[in-house]
Write a structure and sequence with these properties.
The protein is built from 9 helices and 10 strands. It starts with 20 loop residues before the first strand and ends in a 14-residue tail after the last helix.
């Protein structure tokens, strides 16, 4: 098990210092698809991540939890090679993240594109197939787009303009787009936010299916305690850039101080009943 300093545990803001609870996975035959080895990150003159060592295995759904500003998104960006660690090493699918991230799927929390651009959901998905914006669909591209959209419960969206999509509908489209390449690991940043009850259940079932039937690794950033209890095999807790908890869900969710810091007042994925917002 990696050596993690306990003397510098983060301040949770509610109950003082948090003792680190680090229970590394037992050795297994499963492949480590993403790994951070003693990673620290300095960004814009400040230390945002401190000596983090953890990994995600194939066929495992890991939830990455922590209060706002804990460093969750930075850890993901390091894992995908969008940033480089100041200290330490990151391995994605056996290689350097910048070279292997085409085998990973990523759905960011914020979608950076112009929703007023005249395009349909089919166009968005076909652009993911080609790697370029299409003037029209070719051959089986529409069928492939429809198939992957159906997997996320959004087949009726195929011909809709992106300008009229709700937040929940847009999330489904980008999850479908991430699945187009049959990734070996799927990384999702608060994917269940602002989705109605039925759609939320469908997406959680889909994540279960990807993990169990397809042996895909999933890494999910979430502020929702119910989602963690329902889906996670293992939880990574961050607080102020430090790893303060890592282990199996049943064990980690028994740590009151970790749950309070990660979830108290931060459930941004509450269920919307009825129509999507």
């Amino acid at each position: 098990m990696p050596d993690h300093p306990h003397t510098d545990s983060a301040n949770g803001g509610r109950s003082g210092k948090i003792a680190a609870h680090l229970i590394a996975p037992s050795p297994s035959s499963r492949t480590r698809v993403m790994e951070w080895q003693n990673v620290s990150l300095e960004f814009e003159g400040r230390q945002v991540l401190h000596s983090i060592s953890a990994w995600v295995e194939s066929g495992e759904l890991t939830c990455l939890c922590g209060s706002n500003g804990a460093g969750k998104t930075q850890l993901i960006r390091l894992g995908l090679g969008f940033m480089r660690p100041t200290v330490g090493k990151v391995i994605l699918l056996g290689g350097e993240p910048c070279k292997t991230r085409n085998r990973a799927g990523y759905v960011p929390q914020l979608k950076t594109f112009n929703r007023n651009f005249p395009a349909t959901v089919e166009d968005v998905l076909v652009s993911g197939i080609r790697g370029a914006w299409p003037l029209f669909s070719r051959g089986g591209e529409r069928d492939r787009a429809a198939d992957v959209l159906q997997r996320v419960g959004g087949l009726t969206l195929l011909d809709k303009d992106i300008s009229v999509l709700s937040g929940g509908e847009l999330q489904r489209v980008f999850m479908a787009r991430a699945l187009l390449s049959d990734p070996e690991i799927l990384i999702l940043d608060e994917p269940l936010a602002a989705i109605d009850t039925k759609g939320r259940a469908q997406l959680m079932d889909l994540m279960d299916e990807l993990r169990c039937a397809r042996k895909m690794a999933l890494l999910l950033i979430t502020h929702s305690e119910p989602v963690v209890r329902r889906l996670a095999d293992r939880i990574v807790f961050l607080e102020k850039g430090r790893l303060v908890g890592w282990g199996e869900t049943a064990v980690m969710m028994g740590m009151d101080e970790l749950r309070e810091v990660a979830f108290f007042g931060h459930d941004h994925e509450s269920v919307i009943h009825g129509e999507e917002s």
